[in-house]
Design brief:
Layout lengths: L3 H20 L52 E5 L5 H10 L4 E6 L2 H14 L4 E5 L12 E7 L8 H11 E15 L4 H10 L9 H10 L3 E11 L3 H4 L5 H8 L4 E10 L1
Parallel strand pairs: 1-2, 1-4, 2-3, 4-5
Antiparallel strand pairs: 5-7, 6-7
Helix pairs in contact: 1-3, 4-6
Length: 265
């Protein structure tokens, strides 16, 4: 079993590879495609959204949190795990010239890529900050809105991550976060294979535990804004289930889900 620091280093190295592959025009997402991993499988299409920049879209997400985040003109928005800046630039299109967007990421190569993309767009009110979600270099009560896309599941200490999220949100502010969660029991081998096929499954926890962590951090009016079951290739499941067991499992409501969850401070 790897400790939290080892897990962080693995994620940092993987996302550094993604940034480099983006520069070389290779496809990546929710992690990066290799012979055994396809991290793009849960990604949504951003291409029709205002503020979209192709170079910033690494297909790393499992939702579009800005669609549900109730961002208003002039808001300060913080994106946790900003990657190459995709959600930041979409948020900037909503909050406008009078707003402010801060993208946080703990991968140096992603920060570099995001800053290059912001420079291309000529934005002066979008900034990218190097730091960890569990210990954000952001002042208390900074954000009107926090967004994040398929990142919190990768953070080892989710309790601390959501306490930090609560700290940086202004009273009356809120978050809208897209993430991967589990429902029901998945065989340990299946969880491992799912994580190898779709890297964003790594670190995912049961939905009830996830929502309990959010509420324990102090958030109110917590609710699921969007929920979608993610289906992996059948051959992965059939390594662990007979055909009849697989049919029963499909109808049980258990599995891997993308959710977008909302909460208020």
């Amino acid at each position: 079993m790897k400790n939290a620091e080892e897990l962080k280093q693995i994620v940092k190295e993987k996302y550094g590879e993604i940034a480099e592959k983006a520069d070389s025009k290779k496809s990546c997402g929710c992690g990066c495609s290799t012979a055994s991993e396809d991290f793009t499988v849960f990604a949504d299409d951003y291409s029709m959204l205002e503020g979209y920049l192709k170079e910033a879209d690494l297909s790393l997400g499992c939702g579009i949190p800005t669609e549900h985040a109730r961002i208003r003109k002039g808001d300060t928005v913080v994106d946790l795990g900003a990657g190459a800046g995709n959600d930041c630039f979409v948020a900037r299109a909503i909050t406008g010239d009078t707003g402010r967007v801060i993208g946080l990421d703990f991968t140096e190569k992603m920060i570099k890529k995001a800053r290059e993309n912001a420079e291309k767009l000529g934005y002066t009110n979008v900034e990218f900050v190097l730091g960890e979600i569990e210990n954000m270099p952001i002042e208390d009560n900074t954000a009107d809105v926090v967004v994040s896309n398929c990142v919190l599941n990768l953070v080892p200490n989710k309790e601390k991550a959501f306490r930090e999220t609560y700290r940086i949100i202004r009273p009356g502010g809120h978050f809208s976060i897209s993430d991967i969660v589990l429902k029901g029991d998945l065989p340990e081998g299946l969880r491992y294979d799912a994580a190898m096929y779709a890297g964003c499954v790594s670190g995912a926890i049961d939905i009830s535990d996830y929502l309990t962590i959010i509420r324990n951090a102090g958030f109110k009016n917590v609710n699921i804004q969007r929920e979608q079951k993610n289906v992996l290739p059948e051959e992965i499941y059939l390594k662990y289930f007979t055909r009849d067991e697989w049919e029963n499992y499909k109808n049980s409501g258990a599995g891997i889900f993308s959710i977008t969850v909302y909460g208020e401070k």
